Amino acid sequence: MKFLRRDCTRYSKFGKGRGKKAKWRAPKGRDNKMREKKKGYSAVVSIGYGKDKKITPVVINNIRELENANKEQFLVIGNVGKKKQIEMVKKAKELGLELKNINIEAYLKKLSKENKKWI
């Protein structure tokens, strides 16, 4: 859930049409309905909006980390070169792991069409 500052849709200085400017600021006014958590107003940051631990991504940067990973984890290949990425994709297919940012079958098929030297 993305928490936005109060009136960010009204004023450009609070982020209207300027995504980076629309940062969270806690509502502080005495009569502020958002601070009072009234129905119909935007959500306020509070306990209970935390991320689920299962869907927190685990960034994989080498084959050793890939071998130690579980099938239940949310695996994402990190910022690595093409050669290492190909090795990691092949190993993931071999281990039966699912990568969330790469479709293994389509990636290997694309590589085989592109160039025979990678496979």
For the termini, the CA-CA separation is: 41 Å
Q: What's the structural domain tally? A: 2
Please list the strands of the largest sheet in the order they lie side by side.
1-2
Radius of gyration: 22 Å
Count of helices?
Answer: 3
Q: Sheet bearing the most strands, described? A: 2 strands, parallel
Task: Please state roughly what percent of the residues sit in beta strands, choosing from under 5%, 5-15%, 15-25%, 25-35%, 35-45% or over 45%.
Answer: 5-15%
Query: Number of DSSP strands?
Result: 2
Element order: H for helix, E for strand? EHEHH
- On the 0-100 scale, what is the average pLDDT? 88
> Uncertain regions: pLDDT < 50 for 5+ in a row?
none
- Note the overall shape: elongated
Instruction: Name the structural class.
Output: alpha+beta
Task: Determine the fraction of residues in helical runs and give it as a percent range.
Answer: 25-40%
Structure description:
- By secondary structure, the chain is α+β, with helices and mostly antiparallel strands.
- It folds into two domains: 1-50, no CATH class; 53-114, no CATH class.
- It contains three helices and two strands.
- The protein has a two-stranded parallel sheet.
- The longest helix is centred in the C-terminal third of the chain and has 14 residues, at 82-95.
- The chain is elongated and about 65 Å long.
- The mean pLDDT is 88.
